[in-house]
Amino acid sequence: MECRRNPENIAAYVDDELGPAERAELEAHLADCTACREQVAAERRLGELFAALPALHASATPRPAGVW
Amino acid sequence: MLAFQGGDRRAFETLFARYTPRVLTFLTRMVRDRARAEELTQDVFVRIYNAVDRYEARARFSTYVFGIAHNLALNELARAHRKHEQARADLSELGAVDPAPGAEEQLDADRTRGRLERAMADLPERQRAAVLLRSEQGLDYEEIAKALGTSVSSVKSLLHRARETLLAALAKEDA
């Protein structure tokens, strides 16, 4: 089952970037839509994968010589 | 940055120390070449240093710094386009995909992270930048829009399309 009602808002919902009205509207929709709930869960899992990405040990940048 | 504008050189050292790890991480994942990313990270701060008189505090400093980093990354990617395959090999040399041997569960997690890294590398550049700024650097949509020189609605669209692509790529490899 697929619901293409407002896919961009699901990403914004997961990122807590929706305004109160949009958020309430989407949450009401989520209560009835399995496809959108699954999309929310998938995007949250993706966020967890990003959180688990190994650090790039990025602390060793030398200062450029002779600039300051 | 305002303290540096006022003549406090130590304030710039503080900015450099605080932001270089984040900028280097962003640029490494954007250009997929650690050595080049280190040079570009230095370029970012040389530009900030040289433009101190023109800096206006209209947005958070992170927005300003990642905007410069994004522009330099796009220039670098355009220049290095023909070396794309070599750059991907460099990503592997980074050790970004930690092959740490151990329990099967750990290996599965490593494989999944590796798939995510590969899928990220294949994203269009603006989508990759939006995802990195959101998911790794924690910028909000308005800050990402300013850094990328676009609108908040465009950021929503970039993130949506990027995540659809990433999820599809992960699901495909799972199949």
Walk me through this protein's architecture.
The complex is a heterodimer of chains A (about 70) and B (about 180). Chain A has about 70 residues and is mainly α. Chain A is built from three helices and no strands. Chain A has a domain at about 5-50. Helix content of chain A is about 55%, strand content about 0%. The mean pLDDT of chain A is about 85. Chain B is mostly helical and about 180 residues long. Chain B has one domain (about 1-175): PhyR, sigma-like (SL) domain (Butyryl-CoA Dehydrogenase, subunit A, domain 3). In chain B, about 75% of the residues lie in helices and about 0% in strands. Chain B is built from nine helices and no strands. Chain B has helices at about 1-5, 10-30, 35-50, 60-80, 85-95, 105-120, 125-135, 140-150, 150-175. In chain B, α2 runs antiparallel to α3 (about 35-50) and α8 (about 140-150) crosses α9. The mean pLDDT of chain B is about 85. The interface between A and B is medium-sized, with 28 and 42 residues.
Quick recap:
The complex is a heterodimer of chains A (68) and B (175). Chain A is mostly helical. Helices cover 54% and strands 0% of the residues of chain A.
**Total helical segments of chain B:** 9
| Structural class determined from secondary elements of chain A | mainly alpha
Indicate the overall shape of chain A: elongated
> Quick one: biggest sheet of chain A?
none
CATH topology of chain B: Butyryl-CoA Dehydrogenase, subunit A, domain 3
**Biggest protein-protein contact in the assembly:** A-B, 28 and 42 residues
Give the end-to-end Cα distance of chain A, rounded to a whole number of Å: 59 Å
Integer tally of domains of chain B: 1
- Helix and strand element order of chain B: HHHHHHHHH
Give the radius of gyration of chain A. Answer: 19 Å
Unreliably modeled segments of chain A: none
CATH class of chain B: Mainly Alpha
State the oligomer: heterodimer
Largest β-sheet summary of chain B: none
Q: What are the segments of chain B in which pLDDT stays under 50 over at least 5 consecutive residues?
A: none
Strand content of chain B: under 5%
The total of helices of chain A stands at 3
Beta-strand percent range of chain A: under 5%
Mean pLDDT over all positions of chain A: 84
